Amino acid sequence: GENVEQHPSTLSVQEGDSAVIKCTYSDSASNYFPWYKQELGKRPQLIIDIRSNVGEKKDQRIAVTLNKTAKHFSLHITETQPEDSAVYFCAASIYNNNDMRFGAGTRLTVKP
Amino acid sequence: EPEVTQTPSHQVTQMGQEVILRCVPISNHLYFYWYRQILGQKVEFLVSFYNNEISEKSEIFDDQFSVERPDGSNFTLKIRSTKLEDSAMYFCASSPRQGGNEKLFFGSGTQLSVL
User: So what's the pLDDT on residue A95?
Assistant: First the structure.
């Protein structure tokens, strides 16, 4: 089955700097790649997703890039703020398959 | 925004006991899921459920686990004889359409501790 690897496991940045989190996946049939943010004690919530027919998607300070050939995708957060501090999970799944596989998570800390 | 609700938020049980974790998915959603997260590890897929039957399950979801939609609103996960390694946060999720290409809405989780 699909295996998703995520790096780094922890990331600390200064407020205003950029943060990049990277994921790789194993199943070339995967075509949907969401990112979830989980604040301490709260539920995971979708922040951005990308499908395999595009290489990049942007939503304000958040962007995701996808390289299908290399089977990796990345989350980019620019101008980080303390409220960006959370655990971020990447995931991958195949259309028409309900088995979504998650990465191990990255704990992002943004220092004021 | 509508939310998935889970009860209880914390559950403590003795090894070998049965537990039932409860979830109320968002009312117009059709697909339901259970995930678990062992402390410090990744969120792991357990099972998906559609049209009153399991649509996919992972290798974790063995005979000790079962799911049920006993009425029009609840979705439950039962662990028949709990083991120490079942201790984890269990998340329920739902989606309006098939989850393979769709946003999942997660509940706030049930922290299960097996002693």
Answer: 72
